[in-house]
Design a protein that fits this description.
The complex is a heterodimer of chains A (306) and B (665). Chain A is of the alpha/beta class and 306 residues long. Chain A is built from 13 helices and nine strands. Chain B has four domains: 2-156, no CATH class; 213-506, no CATH class; 515-579, no CATH class; 589-662, no CATH class. Classes of the chains: A alpha/beta (306), B alpha+beta (665). The A-B interface holds A 217, 219, 221-222, 265-270, 273, 301-306 and B 586, 588, 591, 610-616, 640-641, 643-646.
Chain lengths: 306, 665
């Protein structure tokens, strides 16, 4: 009964799991986010494997990979590209920036100025960039994994909520458990292993999977539940503001991808509940000062299933 | 081009708020029965306003601005005034309600407006029953009320994604819940003798049936009319059909063509006279249910012993009601088929002898001739009847047109006519010979409904005959039509009308289709009769009798009201209890079955948390009850597939319900 897509995806997760140790759930979430055509924000301390995760995903999925290190002096042109004057032809030629790749790792996105941040975020939203008055489409598929250090660190420009909303999911990796850490310490260099990893999909296969996600059935009863969640967030006094329709769509798409990865052709309330904290966690704000987004997620998770 | 227009319209149609469509459909259907009753001056604007609203919903038109709305209100008032010369009364009031309701559609945008429009639409439904209380109309209005209630439920859930069929089902449920309340109110609401309030009567409303004048062609026009005039239930033996002369109105004034009842002018002036007659033989008891005919006279079997309440008797022994009969009227009477009207006094009034001067000269000569040959008045009557029997007189439904002097032309030239021709000519011959005479109109015979224990008298049974005053015998009924030999009756069906006894002798068996149709007809009439008896005719007396049969003897109205409220309270409590019990579970059979499963587990101390999915729940409880793992997994999987998957497993619901039934933790 399990579909072909399920087998492929399971193999993908297993392969990635050999590089990024003990983080199978995070790998699955990242993959679900990608399959739902969303962008991913990883928020964590440096050195827990954010880059490795992004790189591994790019490798197993056979995607073109580019990394952009965000710094406080990064300019939009450093991301998008510039027009360069060529002596030979006497013309300007567009030199594409690192954004023209299928999978972008925007490392430490909160270190850059808002101007540079918005250049990236606009590209994410529009799937195209406008440089020197010319619109250039970005490659398909186009997937951004941005990493962010927790905002309490010094010298950062935290992303405003309006921009956070553009990320379908936010996950954090956390420290590896004892067993995984031991394996990491005792094993070979991850970088080397990564290069040995061969792509398991090509672009068209990935797009076929993304199409299949859209075909996963969401029954009326499930949409009732989803709407109950949205309505609750809008009516409860604990929330500064309710979930946006985009949040609702992100929830639905992520749950669909999650269901597909679980080998089902329909979404269950459990799928929604699994992706819920990661999809809404960065979009919620407590009404009371000092309120905790975690608590809001818990409130949402207590909404009865109709 | 046309295709694109169609597409555009189809697109707009899909955009229309469904609640608006329900309302427009309900309102239009509620107004339909009024179409024949209201003048075109109001019907057309009402239809236009409904169309305008639909156009607005399709985003093809805009609603009129305030100034135009005021103008339209003025025009509507003017049109109503122009049609009725009043704004009050039944007809004008209904017309005003209809047109103003349609105008309200022009400014309906707030929920308050919608509530007003729907409430008034319900009221339009009530006004329809002022004119027509038949069973068919009742059924039709039930449909209209369902539509209006659907509109109400649809409007009460703005933006709801409830599918239309669910909306319809909801309103049907609401009506079904209201049905016991309606039944209780109907049975127990105290009935007051006489109308609850007096409606201003309208003049000039046409009714079918006999009128207070009779000219050639009047009654023959009714001969094709199968409408029921009244129904009769006899208490004992049914008398033979050819003796059932249903007395109606006496026509005494003749202008050479038309017989008239002059009493309309006299009515209310003279004191009601009692009956002066000697009854012979047994009396007949019966209950008569008269269809509304918009006139004041009532019918009774010749000769009634008394008058029903609310009516008086005239000098010509007509029963005249105090008000015209606008709704079904039921009364019980006693009649004597054999009687002798008081013979003592010759009628003092010359009205019974008057003939229009110069009219019917040949008839006068004939009368004098025959009178001269006769020994006495009775012999003269016999000679006139013999004249009709011996001369080639024919009975036909299509008599030739009589132009100048109908009586003479009929008696000597055409000699073909219907009962009104015979009654008219005979009465003229009597008067010409100096015998006081008058024409009686009413009905003759009727048919027994074999499917119900009652008699149907139809408009086609309308009849006219004569009454002659004979010295020593008083007023004597003479039916000149009855002397025509059967071979001179043109249509065989008419035999049954004028002489039912002939038909019984010569009657051939009708073919099966005719028989079947008759039976259907009788069956339907029986249903209608039951409706009339029990629903429309449910008055104080019937109520007391019905409650008595239920064991509630001598219930006065105070007790009735308290019974009513107790009953209403009980019904509401039962419905409320049901709603209360059903509240946590949606009316979804799959969810219901699963909820039953969860309840069973909850009783064993393993309740499902409200926010817990079926999968998580099963995984949590299986470790505590590992022996049930297979059953729990089976039910959980079935439930998930049924509720969340695209394609349902075959017979999945049945399997789920079965599995839940068998599940015994």
């Amino acid at each position: 009964m399990k579909s072909h897509a399920y087998k492929t995806l399971d193999a993908l997760v297993a392969a990635a799991g050999r590089i990024v140790l003990g983080k199978e759930n995070e790998i699955r979430l990242a993959l679900a986010c990608l399959l739902a055509r969303g962008h991913l924000l990883i928020e964590d301390l440096p050195g827990v494997g954010k880059t490795t995760l992004a790189h591994t995903l790019a490798q197993v999925l056979g995607l073109q990979y580019q990394r952009i290190q965000f710094t406080s002096d990064l300019l939009p042109a450093d991301i998008l590209g510039v027009a360069v004057f060529e002596q030979d032809s006497g013309r300007f030629r567009f030199q594409p920036g690192p954004i023209f790749a299928q999978l972008i790792l925007a490392d430490e996105v909160n270190r850059a100025t808002p101007k540079a941040q918005s250049a990236l975020l606009e590209a994410m939203e529009e799937q195209q960039v406008s440089v020197e008055g010319e619109t250039r489409p970005l490659p398909e598929p186009f997937f951004v994994i941005a990493t962010q250090n927790p905002a309490s660190q010094i010298g950062t420009f935290p992303l405003p909520e309006s921009q956070l909303d553009r990320f379908t999911m936010r996950i954090s990796l956390g420290y590896p458990d004892l067993h995984a850490e031991r394996e990491l310490l005792g094993g070979r260099n991850r970088r080397e292993l990564l290069h040995e990893l061969s792509p398991m999909l090509d672009g068209t296969q990935l797009q076929a999977l993304q199409t299949e996600v859209g075909r996963v059935h969401a029954a009326d009863a499930l949409l009732d539940y989803l709407q109950a969640l949205l309505v609750f967030s809008r009516q409860s006094p604990h929330f500064a503001h309710g979930l946006s329709p985009r949040a609702g769509l992100s929830l639905l798409h992520s749950a669909r991808a999650w269901a597909l990865m679980a080998g089902r052709d329909h979404v269950l309330p459990e799928d929604l509940q699994t992706v819920l904290p990661h999809v809404v966690g960065h979009r919620l704000q407590a009404a009371e000062a000092g309120g905790d987004a975690q608590r809001l997620v818990a409130l949402l998770q207590a909404v009865p299933i109709p | 081009m046309i295709e694109r227009l169609q597409q555009a319209l189809a697109w707009r149609w899909r955009q229309v708020e469904r609640a608006q469509l329900w309302l427009l459909a309900g309102l239009t259907l509620a107004l339909l029965p009024h179409i024949g009753r209201l003048p075109w001056l109001l019907i057309l604007p009402a239809a236009l306003l409904l169309g305008w609203r639909l156009g607005f919903e399709l985003k093809l038109a805009r609603l009129p601005p305030r100034v135009l709305r005021w103008l339209l209100v003025g025009l509507a008032l003017a049109a109503t005034w122009a049609s009725y010369r009043t704004l009050f009364g039944q007809q004008a009031g209904v017309a005003l309600l209809v047109i103003m309701l349609c105008l309200k559609l022009m400014e309906m945008d707030k929920p308050r407006d919608v509530a007003i429009v729907i409430g008034l639409s319900y009221f339009v439904v009530i006004t329809v029953f002022l004119f027509d209380q038949s069973l068919l109309m009742g059924g039709y209005m039930l449909l209209v009320v369902t539509l209006l209630t659907t509109a109400l439920t649809a409007f009460s859930r703005p933006g709801a994604t409830l599918p239309e069929r669910a909306n319809l089902r909801l309103s049907a449920t609401l009506l079904a819940q209201a049905a016991p309340l309606a039944l209780l109110l109907f049975v127990l609401f105290p009935r007051i003798p006489g109308p609850l309030w007096h409606l201003p009567s309208d003049a000039g409303r046409a009714g079918t049936g006999l009128s207070e004048t009779m000219s050639p062609g009047n009654i023959s026009r009714l001969s094709d009319n199968d409408a029921v005039a009244f129904r009769v239930r006899f208490a004992g033996e049914t008398p033979p059909q050819d003796r059932l002369y249903w007395r109606g109105l006496a026509l005494t004034s003749f202008d050479g063509r038309t017989w008239r009842n002059p009493n309309e002018a006299r009515r209310g002036l003279g004191a009601p006279r009692s009956f002066d007659y000697t009854a012979i033989g047994e009396s007949v008891h019966y209950t008569l249910t008269l269809e509304p005919h918009q006139r004041r006279w009532l019918f009774a079997l010749d000769m009634p012993a008394s008058v029903p309440p609310g009516s008086t008797v005239s000098a010509d022994v007509e029963i005249i009601a105090d008000n015209s009969v606008k709704t079904l009227r039921q009364y019980s009477l006693q009649s004597y088929l054999d009687y002798r009207l008081d013979a003592g006094l010759a009628p003092s009034n010359f009205a019974y002898l008057r003939l229009p001067p110069g009219m019917a000269p040949r008839a006068r000569i004939l009368a004098q001739q025959l009178r001269a040959e006769s020994r006495d008045d009775a012999d003269y009557v016999q000679r006139v009847l013999d004249f009709i029997r011996q001369q080639p007189f024919y009975y036909t439904r299509q008599p030739p047109l009589l132009l100048d002097d109908p009586v003479d032309e009929f008696l000597f030239d055409s000699r073909q006519g219907f009962c009104e021709h015979y009654a008219s000519a005979f009465t003229v011959l009597m008067r010409a010979a100096g015998l006081p005479a008058r024409v009686m109109t009413g009905y003759l015979g009727g048919e027994d409904n074999p499917l119900g224990d009652y008699f149907i008298v139809r408009q086609s049974d309308a009849h006219a005959w004569s009454e002659v005053w004979l010295r020593g015998r008083g007023w004597v009924r003479v039916d000149p039509t009855a002397v025509i030999p059967p071979e001179r009756v043109e249509n065989r069906d008419d035999l049954e009308r004028i002489a039912p006894a002939y038909a019984a002798r010569t009657g051939e068996a009708p073919d099966w289709a005719k028989r079947l149709w008759r039976n259907v007809d009788y069956g339907w009439d029986r249903v209608n009769n039951t409706w009339n008896q029990w629903i429309i005719g449910y008055d104080e007396g019937t109520q007391t009798a019905f409650l008595g049969r239920l064991g509630l003897e001598n219930v006065d109205w105070q007790r009735m009201v308290s019974l009513l409220f107790i009953g209403l309270g009980l019904v509401v409590a039962v419905i409320a209890l049901q709603l209360f019990r059903r509240r946590p579970v949606r009316r979804d059979v799959v969810a219901e079955a699963y909820a039953r499963f969860c309840r069973k587990l909850a009783r064993r101390g393993l309740p499902r948390k409200p926010a817990e999915g079926a999968q998580d729940y099963s995984m949590r409880i299986i470790p505590s009850r590992p022996e049930l793992a297979a059953q729990i997994q089976h039910i959980t999987l079935l439930y998930q597939r049924l509720r969340y998957a695209r394609s349902m497993p075959r017979d999945g619901l049945r399997h789920l319900q079965q599995a839940v039934r068998r599940f015994r933790p």
